[in-house]
Amino acid sequence: MYKFWVSIRLFLLPITIMMVISSCDGRKSSQQALKEAIVEFQQEVPIEVDEYFPSEYFESYNDTILDNGYRILIKTVPDLENDVTLTKIKDTVNFQKHYRNFKIEIKLETDTGEFIKEHFTKERINYLVRESHTNYRLFSNEMVLKALNVNYLESTSEAVIFDLLYHLPETDKTSELRLSLSRKAIIITESNNL
Known about the structure:
Layout: H1 2-23, H2 30-44, E1 47-53, E2 60-65, E3 70-90, E4 93-110, E5 115-120, H3 122-131, E6 144-150, E7 159-167, E8 174-182, E9 186-192
Parallel strand pairs: 1-4
Antiparallel strand pairs: 2-3, 3-4, 4-5, 6-7, 7-8, 8-9
């Protein structure tokens, strides 16, 4: 019986040694292979997260009658094609925030039936700013056209005055332009600065 155990040991010893040697052939463990595959995937496949402000299309209407005889109709919609994009990369994820500008349509009617109809986008306003030699750097590409307000106090029977509000996204910085709209001209001046 002793010989039997010795022969089994002699038989099992080379098999055990072969198994130990074959398991050390340099192959990766499944856990190590998974980690390497995740790192490789993150380097090859960009992950982007896009947020839009405002997130949906809407139409805003404002109908005002001034004591100087003007009826003002203002339609405001988000400009879905033009926005200011801020990008932050965290780990391998590219977070992009898109702050949309607005398109504004103004229709002025007088009590005599005459009317003026104008469309404004950020690009058109920036063009008018450059033409009026206003300090253009304040209204550069990183600012968003946020709002248009009727300036009741400064409007006259000759022209209606509007305040255009520009905003620098993710900050408290704003700037205003004054827009004078009359039958004769469109005039833009600075109202206040950053």
